[in-house]
Write a structure and sequence with these properties.
The protein has 417 residues and is an alpha/beta fold. A seven-stranded parallel sheet has the order 1-7-6-2-3-5-4, sandwiched between helices. Helix 1 packs across helix 2. Bound molecules: adenosine monophosphate. The site of adenosine monophosphate has 17 residues, from strand 15.
Length: 417
Amino acid sequence: MQQFIDKYDFTGKRAIVRVDFNVPLNENFEITDDTRIRRAMPTLKKVLESGGSVIIMSHLGRPKKVDPKFSLKHIVGRVSECLGVPVQFADDCMKADAQAAALKPGEALLLENLRYYAEEEGKPRGLAEDASEEEKKAAKAAVKASQKEFVKKLASYADCYINDAFGTAHRAHGSTALIAEYFPNDKMFGYLMEGEIKAIDNILNNAQRPLTAIIGGSKVSSKLAVLKNLVGKVDNLIIGGGMGYTFIKAQGGHIGLSLHEDELIPDALEILKTAKEKGVNVSLSVATVAGQSFDNDTPQKVFDIYNIPDDWEGMDASPASLENWRKIIMSSKTILWNGPVGVFELPNFAKGTLQIAQDLADATKQGAYTLVGGGDSVAAVTQMGFADKVSYVSTGGGAMLEAIEGKVLPGIAAIRD
Ligand code: AMP
């Protein structure tokens, strides 16, 4: 049965906490953005302040074997600083028995990168490229079998399990989902997970109307399931960025060199048809800021979105499109934003995306509920200094998208089941 962090008695208990400390490091192994560490602090501090101790576990990067580059040792100092207590370190996540057993209330132990072991993801490693189907099957069965021991070992360190790693909640990995089985009556979400789940629920199930989704980014293919789920739920669907051009081409527009996916034209038409049937207002760009090559200093020109010349490429939202979108945003009570509306990495084509960040901050001030997720959209609100001027900034890219697709995330199901 699921427990709740605010009600659970941690006195004298050891909690094993899955966090997402997959932070970016520079070439000197210094943390360049510690947001993920800071966002996990309320949960860790709660356990320590309630008379418990914590065993913290995470992955870092995508090591395929033990590789010092991906050691969590690089971050133990920062974790200690944030937590306000010295954090001990276990060099091998499978050999932490003694350190875990010696933890006293108020103490913390960080385990080495879980992904040093193939068992964390449960996927075989080191298979020859020309391995036969049978060899692949046997390797998969072998790692699945040893995964049970891996998970059992992690579980043996603690009395209760907390999942606070929303960034990996869409993965059915050892530490994110399978471990919950060992804590049938002592498993719960951390505060970050609780916040993320509530934020998504505020959009998908409890939205105040009008509800608007702004979906941008590069490709329709990467967000097809998101668009299909949202079109049945929202009042307004703003489609911007690279993915917009497939919709324009689908309707007979001339899009020049702009990014598009011909094979997704039928899907785009289907989404537009569903929107019409359901009375959903789909808002595409009306004009685009185009460039002649994919670089920051290329000359810029604004074209009608249906008439982009052959040698020009749409790269940012135009003032006219942004004006339309602002009207929609400012008249909405609930807004979800995922994906940039232009080539945000190039400063000369980031204006549209930064304007959306501004609109969301203004809508929030006016009382709307606003949820922002996805790397570039989060970067845009952060760059504008608006991270605390929107209602919620999600820490999960892929996990958030899968949740918006309407999928049940394994990390969430494992706690609730
Ligand atoms: P996603 O990861 O799907 O949210 O996509 C983000 C990417 O979309 C960023 O790298 C942007 O540069 C890209 N993008 C946004 N608008 C455009 C556009 N008009 N043309 C090409 N790429 C774009």
